[in-house]
Design goal:
mainly alpha
C-alpha cells in the first residue's frame, strides 16, 4: 500500500506543481496576430514593420516554427535593406 501511495505521489506531483520550468519557454502572452499582420501590410514606418515581424516571429515560435522562421527572416531582410541593427530582430 505504501508503494502504491508513493507511485501515485510520484506521478501526480508533477501535475500539481506544473512540471519543471523550461527556461526557454516564452510567456503565454500572445499578441493579436491579426493586428500585427495588418501593421506589416499597411504601415509605411519601417521600424514598426520591423517590430511587427519580430513579434509575429515570437508569437509563432512555439507552435508553428516554419511561420516563425519566415517572419524572422523577413525581419532580417528588412533590417538589411534599411541598414538597421540586426540584433533588434533577435533580442527579446
Amino acid at each position: 500500500m505504501k508503494s502504491f501511495a508513493g507511485l501515485l505521489l510520484l506521478f501526480v506531483w508533477p501535475l500539481v506543481t506544473d512540471g519543471q520550468e523550461n527556461p526557454f519557454y516564452l510567456p503565454k502572452r500572445i499578441p493579436n496576430r491579426d493586428s500585427l499582420q495588418s501593421i506589416v501590410r499597411n504601415t509605411d514606418d519601417e521600424q514598426k514593420r520591423l517590430e511587427a515581424y519580430r513579434e509575429l516571429g515570437f508569437s509563432y515560435y512555439e507552435n508553428k516554427r516554419d511561420s516563425a522562421l519566415y517572419y524572422f527572416e523577413e525581419c532580417v531582410v528588412l533590417a538589411n535593406r534599411f541598414r538597421s541593427e540586426i540584433p533588434k530582430c533577435s533580442d527579446r
